């Protein structure tokens, strides 16, 4: 089943899966995500090709320019033996697509525990033409790492953009990473380090960097990069 994209009468788009949406008109968009809808082309430049989103995804997806820059930075920092990228919280595919577009990785593994969200990510990857570079897993990321991907850890880098608890995090001048839900920084680092030391975490801009510094090894340092888009911190 298909419907017309009213923004382009020549184009047809697939009907979104249950609990996901493609909004062609502002009038159809719930009031609490209209702010994000106005930014839809920064989130996905190919939005009008029929991008699927869940309601929660509007608050958490990484904007495409930021995702692309993160992908470039991770690729440049990776050791020569690293050829696999594992995204532990794939969401609707913002970062996964960027990693798959980067030629640095022979394979990208995407893990997402919500079925509707994973279906969105798969569909969106098809729109960007990178679906063949991605292996998809539905389930808890740490269980998938332990059971399904254990043999790949020598060659893998973990990327984690965990849920931050919705837009309410913006109300805090300093975001406490030890109370972040559903996974605290301690949860993430402890579990990810059972798999590899090569970990990249995307966190709120107001995160307490002192809490991050506690996870440096020995006299080593952690690299912290602040991303902005159109003059706004992300």
Shape: globular
Order of helices and strands: EEHHHHEHEHEHEHEHEE
Structural class: alpha/beta
Number of strands: 9
Radius of gyration from the CA trace?
18 Å
Tell me what you see in this structure.
The protein has 234 residues and is of the alpha/beta class. It contains nine helices and nine strands. The protein has helices at residues 34-37, 40-43, 57-60, 64-77, 94-101, 115-127, 141-147, 185-192, 209-213, and strands at residues 2-4, 12-14, 84-87, 107-112, 134-138, 156-160, 199-201, 228-229, 232-233. Strands 5-4-3-6-7 form a five-stranded parallel beta sheet, with helices on both faces. It has a two-stranded antiparallel sheet with strand order 1-2. α4 packs across α5 (94-101). The longest helix has 14 residues, at 64-77. The termini are far apart.
């Amino acid at each position: 089943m298909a419907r017309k994209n009213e923004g382009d009468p020549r184009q047809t788009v697939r009907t979104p899966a249950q609990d996901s949406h493609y909004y062609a008109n502002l009038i159809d968009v719930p009031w609490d995500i209209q702010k994000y809808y106005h930014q839809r082309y920064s989130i996905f430049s190919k939005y009008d090709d029929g991008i699927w989103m869940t309601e929660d995804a509007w608050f958490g997806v990484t904007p495409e320019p930021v995702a692309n820059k993160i992908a470039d930075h991770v690729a440049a920092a990776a050791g020569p033996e690293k050829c696999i990228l594992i995204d532990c919280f794939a969401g609707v595919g913002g970062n996964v697509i960027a990693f798959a577009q980067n030629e640095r990785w022979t394979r990208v593994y995407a893990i997402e525990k919500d079925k509707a969200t994973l279906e969105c990510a798969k569909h969106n990857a098809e729109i960007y033409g990178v679906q063949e570079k991605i292996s998809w897993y539905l389930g808890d990321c740490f269980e998938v790492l332990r059971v399904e991907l254990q043999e790949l850890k020598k060659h893998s880098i973990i990327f984690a953009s965990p849920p931050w608890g919705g837009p309410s995090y913006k109300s805090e001048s300093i975001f406490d990473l030890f109370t972040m839900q559903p996974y605290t920084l301690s949860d993430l680092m402890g579990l990810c380090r059972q798999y590899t030391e090569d970990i990249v975490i995307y966190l709120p801009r107001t995160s307490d960097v002192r809490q991050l510094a506690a996870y440096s090894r020995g006299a080593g340092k952690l690299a912290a990069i602040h991303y902005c888009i159109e003059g706004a911190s992300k």
